[in-house]
Specification:
Two copies of one chain form a homodimer. Chain A is mainly beta. Chain A folds into three domains: 3-157, Immunoglobulin-like (Sandwich); 169-358, Sandwich (Immunoglobulin-like), CATH 2.60.40.420; 375-567, Sandwich (Immunoglobulin-like). Chain A has seven helices and 32 strands. Chain A has helices at 3-17, 19-26, 179-187, 213-216, 349-358, 406-411, 542-546, and strands at residues 33-45, 52-57, 66-69, 73-80, 89-92, 118-124, 129-135, 146-152, 165-174, 199-202, 234-237, 242-249, 255-260, 265-270, 273-280, 283-285, 290-296, 305-312, 321-327, 375-386, 389-394, 397-399, 444-446, 450-452, 457-463, 476-480, 485-492, 511-512, 514-517, 521-528, 533-539, 550-555. In chain A, β22, α6 (406-411) and β23 form a beta-alpha-beta unit. In chain A, α1 packs across α2 (19-26). The radius of gyration of chain A is 23 Å and the shape is globular. The interface between A and B is large, with 46 and 46 residues.
Chain lengths: 579, 579
């Protein structure tokens, strides 16, 4: 609720810094500069009532929301005030047209930012919509380094739907172990999984059951349910008004279902793209996705209602995440008289698949996909053991990022920086049984990348399979940097290259930057390799990416402009960190 | 007890790597190359029975002991396998003659080593003796990144004392909070001190009272006193034999007293310099110091004895640290029948001062100091508040290291990298009351440095004072990089520049690299600025240095050879990390 004031604060600061430019911009409809000065550091916070060290931006987690208008240039001057840790921040959903070096993917587009150093991210937000940002180095996202980007339409342009106000809702799951502790387990032999999160957060607030905290390691005073830092987030609404809820998820692990007790929601936007409106009672949302839903405050106004998130796709061990959908003028913290929703069955994959299939591009805003692809890459998603460590692999390659960022290595032809042979475009479809545990003994760690012909059309078929646990196949939200892709289709079982393309929606597929791969299923995506740069494409589950679940695409490297020296300083990349 | 085998291992490895060179060297008395390949990472360890993440070297904390012979060149190829943290390692007591870039002091002599990167430290161990190594970045030393360096005499040269065997003993104090948690408290407003350590470690082993662990935050299984990792270290001795115990301390906070029940000790070495032998019952040892003591196994041999360390100079809240002085053939873990020593009174400053004063250079090995100094720098040690944060200052300047290492900045004349005005050589002696709490409202953070005339003789008078707590003055062990200094004298109260020099020992002062500054006292040190480079001089208490308690000396920068590119890559220092 503080965001309008916060937004004003930025402009005031901006005014102070660029008085002339800003005055000009305020008096016109020209693109503006949105300036943020951030300090990233560790601080003790109690987002779910349990006190732990959190990576904050200007003292906050989630960090400040970036508000901008389509066409604006966003400057984020980020000072790393961590003590011994580097950092990098990815602008999730922003395509970085012309600024591939600002994508913030450590090892792909930049060297990490050293403690004490300041790095300037500069990029244009070319399209209105709801986006995210988060740490993209080690597992720092899970330490609390995340936030929202809201891009509004240009002056005089309206959304194709109407609402009175908008509200921002960012979802997360939350662990009490530090990211070092989580990574130590994932790297250990025997493997120790991060496990289920301790709580779910809505707008950075959750509620851990402190009575469990003696067993799980809290000192006296470490867990305190009366701490105002963890009082539930209130979404205050005026009766009769319609709200656009901009909902984003940056969970480390959990697929979620979001609902507001007694209220229908109409989905209108997904990952910055308009979708043909359709009504739902619960929204399935996977890590890395954003949606806008319209909700009318049309229920009995003398009480409040629960807004809830619940874990799906994994047998949940985490309590429901709660916020209060607060009908003005009730007290924002007044508890609803009802029990919070527990959501659909966690293992109702069919229901999740059905919702994935229900999305269509909005009439009048359809961006038609090319009818055929120049190249089809089928990625078999498997869990493997490599040198005794659990890993995730694509076609038996588990991604390890090189010391020298790919962008620098490719631009400067540092061929020693990573293995130059291409990874395979497919797997042994005929002989691989996706329903059985496979050892995949030939799986290896690799930093090989896919090099795409510039402007070619590329299909990626994500093929799910059984994990290394009997009768288990997990859900993987795949996120592509630098592009939106068309979501051509989803299916169950093994993708059949000779006929499953017939199921594709080539008429009005939605475009997204993140799409789920459902258990034992396949997901077909198409994109145009038209953004010069180097782009990560990976599972957005923090531990899965840590365990190698990603690939990297290069396209049009020769068209990339001169790299800023600030992205260098590691591996074979000469130059210094300061811009 | 595994060290001889370990040492052999190194030579075997060395043989494999440099077969020809080694064969030649083994057959001659020429200097050899000692090669270590280290991987630094986080692992769960239970040094005091409480399981936590520890920074290990090749899976160990303390790390492997470096054994070398005077004149050898030591190569340490260090791979940083931490996830998001950089690292740097300092070779404590090694003067780095001709290799100032290998000193390992982050911000002073090098940029930190990034995760995934490998850095080669190369230096000559020019003098036999007992030395240390440890992390010198953030508070990583306190995370377990430390070990010993043992340099033996050249073939055919004997020590001026005799013994049968030597044993290595490294002392530490140990915290259960992570270094991030410790630093978060030190940086917080209000300030949260790291507090007293949970346990004391001898050769990396201590014993925490696990029954306290529910209160202090341990989950079930986190604290386990039956874990063999935390069984006490055994120092096995053969009755009638004389042992040289090489004792080093790398405590974060604690000054210690070391004793072996029922055994006299004769001190023969301090910080790599021979001292005139003298007998003691307990050795006071401050963080950063090393000593060799001779102990004869001359007691009743049917039992074992306690070797103990206890905290002094602070009101102790940490239990005695224990090892077993094991008379062969008793079982190494057989408990002595007696109660462990509790040591002298913690606040018996006079006794500690007396021991400091008792040291003399050994007859026949006296390195006479210059009789006068070219420059006298008096450093008033105070605690201050700066911008609401507790800090430690010298003459009201609290050190903050610059982004660009001083060595690079000075060599390349990057005058913007740090403030060029010199810090003051003294303080307001006439008006400053060292016995009262002073606010020192003019204290500031600073990265100014002392530039010394090459080959000049410099006196540093460390002047202690009251801290910001009424009637409290702390003990500060000051460590100088790149040099030994002559310890000219210690005194109580305010140093009087017009007469206290008369108390100096100019006849046979010992040389050291670390010397204590006692409460409300002064310590007078003299050194020759004859080692081209940039050298830190700081309090060796980890939290005090973190809070700014240090200065930096430059001397003969124009004589420093070409800097290796591997030390660059941060701040304004161009170049890449790889050598």
């Amino acid at each position: 609720m503080t965001e309008p004031a916060e937004r004003k604060g930025y402009f005031v600061r901006l005014l102070a810094l660029f008085p002339l430019i800003c005055l000009i911009n305020f008096s016109s409809v020209e693109a503006k500069t949105v300036y943020h000065k951030w300090e990233v550091k560790y601080e003790y916070k109690s987002p779910d009532c349990y006190k732990k060290l959190v990576i904050t931006i200007n003292g906050r987690s989630p960090g400040p929301t970036i508000f901008a208008q389509q066409g604006d240039t966003v400057f984020v001057e980020l000072k790393n005030s961590l003590w011994t840790e580097n950092v990098a921040v990815h602008w999730h959903g922003i395509r970085q047209l012309g600024t591939p070096w600002s994508d913030g993917a450590e090892g792909v587009t930049q060297c990490p930012i050293l403690p004490g150093e300041t790095f300037i991210y500069r990029f244009v937000v070319d399209r209105a919509g709801t986006y995210l940002y988060h740490g993209h180095y080690g597992m720092q996202r899970a330490a609390g380094l995340y936030g929202s980007i809201i891009v509004s339409l240009p002056e005089g342009v309206s959304e194709p739907f109407s609402y009175d106000y908008d509200q921002n809702i960012i979802l997360n799951d939350w662990y009490h172990a530090s990211t070092n502790e989580q990574a130590a387990g994932l790297s250990a032999i025997p493997f120790v999984f991060v496990g289920e999160p301790q709580s779910l957060l809505i707008n950075g607030r959750g509620k851990y059951n402190c009575s469990l905290s003696t067993a799980s390691g809290s000192a006296a005073g470490v867990c305190n349910t009366t701490n105002p830092e963890c009082s539930p987030s209130s979404l205050t609404v005026v009766p009769g008004k319609t709200y656009r809820l901009r909902i984003g998820s940056l969970t480390s692990l959990s697929a979620l279902t979001f609902e507001i007790e007694g209220h229908d929601m109409t989905v209108v936007e997904a990952d910055g793209n308009y979708v043909e409106p359709f009504a739902i009672r619960n929204l399935y949302i996977y890590s890395g996705e954003t949606y806008s839903v319209l909700v009318k405050a049309d229920q009995e106004s003398s009480r409040n209602y629960w807004a809830t998130i619940n874990v799906v796709a994994r047998n949940p061990a985490t309590p429901t995440g709660l916020a209060i959908f607060n009908y003005y003028p009730n007290h924002p913290q007044k508890q609803p008289p009802t029990a919070p929703a527990t959501g659909p069955l966690w293992n109702d994959t069919a229901s999740r698949l059905a919702q994935s299939l229900a999305f269509r591009a909005r009439q009048g805003f359809i961006n038609k996909p090319p009818v055929t692809a120049d190249r089809v890459i089928v990625l078999l998603n498997t869990q493997n053991k490599i040198d005794g460590h659990f890993k995730w692999s694509l076609n038996n390659l588990s991604l390890i990022l090189p010391q020298t960022p790919y962008l620098v290595a490719l631009k400067e032809n540092l061929t020693g920086a990573f293995a130059q042979d291409p990874p395979p475009d497919g797997y042994d479809v005929a002989n691989y049984d996706i329903h059985s545990v496979a050892e995949n003994v030939n799986a290896t760690s690799s930093n090989r990348i896919y090099r795409l012909r510039f402007n070619s059309t590329v299909d990626v078929i994500l093929q799910n399979a059984n994990s290394m646990t009997v009768k288990n196949s997990e859900t993987h939200p795949w996120h592509l940097h630098g592009h939106d892709f068309w979501v051509l289709g989803y299916g169950t079982g093994k993708y059949n290259i000779s006929c499953d393309w017939r199921k594709y929606n080539l008429v009005n597929p939605i475009m997204k930057n993140t799409a789920p791969l459902h258990p034992y299923g396949w997901t077909a995506l198409r994109f145009r390799a038209d953004n010069p740069g180097v782009w990560a494409f990976h599972c957005h589950v923090e531990s899965h990416f840590y365990m190698g679940m990603g690939v990297v695409f290069e396209e049009g490297i020769e068209k990339v402009g001169e790299l800023p020296s600030s992205i260098r300083g590691c591996g074979e990349s000469e130059g210094h960190h300061r811009p």
